[in-house]
Amino acid sequence: MSLPMPSSTAYCRKQKSLGLLCSNFLGLYNRDGIDTVGLDDAASRLGVERRRIYDIVNVLESVGVLVRKAKNTYHWNGLGAIPKALEQLKEEGFNNNDEQIDVKSGKVSDDEEDERVSNHSASLQDKTDLDSMHKPPGLLKSGTLIDNRKEKSLGLLTKNFIKLFLCTNSDVHSLDDAAKILLGDAHNPSLTRTKVRRLYDVANVLSSMNFIEKTHHPETRKPAFRWLGMTSQINSQPGPATTVVHQESKKRAFGTELTNICFKRNKLDNQEVKLFGGLQSQRQPIKPNTNGSNSYPGPDQFGQPGPLSQPKSSNGESNKIKKTRDLENLASNYRPQYRNQALRDLFVHYMDAWKAWYSEVAEMDPIGVI
DNA sequence: CATTCCCGCCATCTG
DNA sequence: CAGATGGCGGGAATG
Q: What digits encode the pLDDT tens for the residues A109-127?
């Protein structure tokens, strides 16, 4: 019981959110020369417990930004790997059955992400909401009793959640519905509750990367999330982006404090603050934007443009800036300056892949799938 | 009261 | 078997 909140620095939930942590994480590693990310390193530099790093890393891995390399170590692929990862997710979602071969470079680890979304030829686009994708709860195959751990992983959940947007008509889903869908059936309220908690976790990091944004379901009023990827507008009309928007115009001014460090909810105090100091003095400060919403701060001080960044008001929070389909600008605007030729090539490769995919998708008939 | 979701216990899975 | 992972859900913060 150390006092919960020093008057000046009250405990603020937002400062400890996964979303903010994700932003900081990206800010810390999304730069030239990063190849490996160590969990302990990340945890200490970000001033959080290891447990939290797992949360973030798991969802980032689902989106291709990272790959687990070994115990305590991840390989940094970078944001450039996102398009490809999404493409893959989409594909998987459509051939809504499981087992996809790993396309990663090199080794095909193990079962990697296998999800078994039930088989059953789904008409790609069915109704608006619940439907087509679900993973059978029970499960079959390989399982006996082992399986489940992975099936409940945050990583898988992230993927399925994203597929929900990529492979469905609707680009707005309430977590509640999402939970039910992803849960297969299991109308167990308790299970759903837990699922929703997890969805909040992934939603937070995804929204910090501007993949999604919080809104309310048109009719239902229920809180929900809207996909901000490129799918939405492509969806509404064939042809190239209709809403290529703005872009890196403003340099946001974020808060200047590293968050995620202090004040435990109200118990024990923390001695982690020192990490903060250390970080500040030795590295560019992460600028979390202390109170407002949190989203990936963007490049500025990190050297690279942030494809997923968005203009953000310094005191934002209420400020619902229309987050835009940044991914759309990815190809044209995201131009990291890699000093390393290999990385550069890799990046180019990703971009090409993405463009190919994008144009392909763009000319598809709207009713078709997307 | 409802929604959001942080925290950290502790089951599992490696190495 | 110790350390690494990461479900899971209580319950606090917020709306």
A: 333 333 333 333 333 333 3
